[in-house]
Amino acid sequence: MAAWSNVLNATSVTNIVIAGLGGQGVLKASGIVADAAFRCGMDVKKAEVHGMSQRGGSVASDIRFGRMVLSPMVPPGEARFLVVISPDQVENNRWQLAPGGVLITPDQIDERKLKNRKSINVALLGVLSTHLEIPLDAWLAAINANLAERLRPVNLEAFQVGRDAARSSQ
Amino acid sequence: MNRSLLSGDEAVALGALHAGISIGAGYPGTPSTEILEAFAALGGRAQWSPNEKVALEVAIGAAYAGARSIVTMKHVGLNVAADPLFTVAYTGVTGALVVVSADDPGMASSQNEQDNRRYAVAAGIPMLEPSDSQEAYDFTRRAVELSELWQVPILLRLTTRVCHSMTIVEDSPPASAPAEPRYERDTRRRVMIPSNARPAHRRLREKLAAAALWNESSDLNRRVGESTELGIITSGISFVHAREAAPGVAILKLGLTYPLPVERIRAFAASVARAVVIEEGDPYLAESLRAQGITVEAKPEAFRFGELNVDRVRRILAGDHTPEPAPPPGKPPQLCPGCPHRVAFGALRDLGCIVAGDIGCYTLGVLPPFEALDTCVCMGASIGVGLGLRHALPPAEARKVVSVIGDSTFIHSGITGLVEAVYNRPATGHVVIILDNGTTAMTGLQEHPGTGRSLHHLPAGRVVIEDIVHSLGIEDVHVVDPWSSPDAFRNQVAHALEAGDVSVIIARRDCLLAAGRIKAYERAIARDGGLEQCVERD
Question: The whole model's pTM is what?
Fold first, then answer.
């Protein structure tokens, strides 16, 4: 727990938006982020809209964490991180990003390094993880808890691909 | 005490379990669907009914027997269930009855954004409005307690952002079980002939008066902040938006929003220089308070539309009337590649049909590349609307009218439309296409009576759609696989249009997303009755 104390002491709320198309694992990715933050003892809220999302349309999910979170929705233009899984969804989601915010997109990953390209959502979380003070073991626990056993190895590897890609570009 | 990160729907399910609810019924509808699925996953007894009216009636019967029951639906589902709702308010209940209405302001996945707080007033049913998952859990439990205390049904009114947002929930020890259900005859209270209903209405008003008095000092309503300048009166999800948009102001956060704690609100409004009501949807609170002579500011009309968020609340408080920036449009949803409905809509487009549509994935037939849907009103409306078009249009156009309805929707409320087609047959006949993809697809692949499997995907009685159609005396009935030959399907429709009879074409092929699961359920049932089924859901 000692390593997490700097997270717990943070008073501001971290706002993250994950966007993409239905079927790309937007909600799965946001579930992992929310779970990882929850495991650090932070207040966490996650908001999204279900229903039509399975039909290939635009999907976005908001995650907010900190000492105390009020609204579950990231206010317009206040996302510190915008993770977009589908390249064609960057422009219509850019308005969510705060000035100076971080945009994370698939072109930051060498997809050839992924055993299964469907794990790009978790690879992008690997990139995101290098910007956040959530410790690695919370991330790994969240990935394991949110994915079926047979999907874990490929996604844990994808997460590492994302972390390595972010480190080599920093 | 466990802490967990739950959606509002999951929190209602956990609350229901811990409140000792012994039966949950409902019909799938975004954003309510996950409540019963989660309740079942927790070990609760949950079942899908053919529609919301039947689900409520089942829950009423259970509550008459002394059990604790819950019924779940989306906002428009309560329209279907409105008939029993208004009268169970009169009869009251012996056990507990919680009616969950999941409203969809902003219409993320709905055909209207009606505000079901109006139903609480219209039917005379006390209403609780949680603002996050913790309150969804707590208020479900309180709803059961209050239903038993006042012997009335309780409306638990949720909205999309409460249902589908995940927030932290701390649970509490389960309630003691209710007394074992047993029947006690009480015809004066339960048989609503006029001579019994007249005193029943008076009893209801007495119960509501007692509830209103109780609510004046209830812990379900609370004040946050001691400012004497700006005071906000709010409820539900609007509370968290308001708290973030205006830190440091005074907020009166209402939990039991019908009957309102009028004197408490009056005192709050008098304690601040400026009292503003922050609410999504209709100006229900503002109108109610003004009718009581309480001076409050209401939001401008522009904020009746869509969801509120932190930014919109800031605008309301600042009196900012400048146009709101519209977010760039995203990619609209569409029928999946390989969806069997694609064949049907390709045929209807090619044949130039006037298509009376219905509620489900196939409503997406209105979008390119098909643009082959002409109407969509409510569940089951395709058949009645198609018949009306046939009656009113000149014969040359009437002959092009087709009604298109899904399997789950047909069972929900299409059957009576088909009865109408037989009884008041248009001069040109009619063509009804039932798109049977073996699941309730749009809401997330739920079972229904036509699949022959229960909510838990275990064996259940099966209603055979073509048997229903035949039983009405309709002779021209065809069951076809549209995917096997799109040409043959188109010819089939063309032939039916020319025949001038009442024709029903059942286009049967499993939803592409559901097909694998359906096979797995059936394999598990064949193996061991489905008891050891292990279907991975992502």
Answer: 0.96
